[in-house]
What does this fold into?
Amino acid sequence: DGGITQSPKYLFRKEGQNVTLSCEQNLNHDAMYWYRQDPGQGLRLIYYSQIVNDFQKGDIAEGYSVSREKKESFPLTVTSAQKNPTAFYLCASSIVGRGEQFFGPGTRLTVL
Amino acid sequence: QQQVKQSPQSLIVQKGGISIINCAYENTAFDYFPWYQQFPGKGPALLIAIRPDVSEKKEGRFTISFNKSAKQFSLHIMDSQPGDSATYFCAARTAGGTSYGKLTFGQGTILTVHP
It folds into this structure.
């Protein structure tokens, strides 16, 4: 089955630790995205990439970092500089120039 | 900086009723307006979408109405069912430049349909 996988589904970390969220897709999409979802705020774009080895900051990139070494993978690192990292994180992919983005099931990160 | 404003934040309708969710945007450089449906604990999925050269698009019980001059668009769910209970997001796609393809989402509407 083609789709997007995110792991883990739930993640708990202590304050001050960096943590990396995994996102893999087998849809052969060039574009990939990371969103953060908080109640009442919709989805806010963290980073996006339209091609391997290139990525752009979204609206709330501070405290986050990404890499795009392979077309299929777009991991997100939540660093200790992110002041309020507890949230639901969603990864998505799309064909460049096409409107529809396909979302993964999300990772719920809780920082204790 | 919120460029897409969505209302209401929550909506309760009875089974068989009509659910209406509204969105307004400011940026005229948007060229595609999708609606996403999200169930609890899941990622959003595309429900229906419209381009600005069309005033209305219907797919089954779901209809998008688009008013380009007013910079507003809305989702109508006819004959609402309990299975429609979910969070709905409107979005707008940036038309060009280095941000081409970027979606800006509204804040979301939690729809509850009572049996």
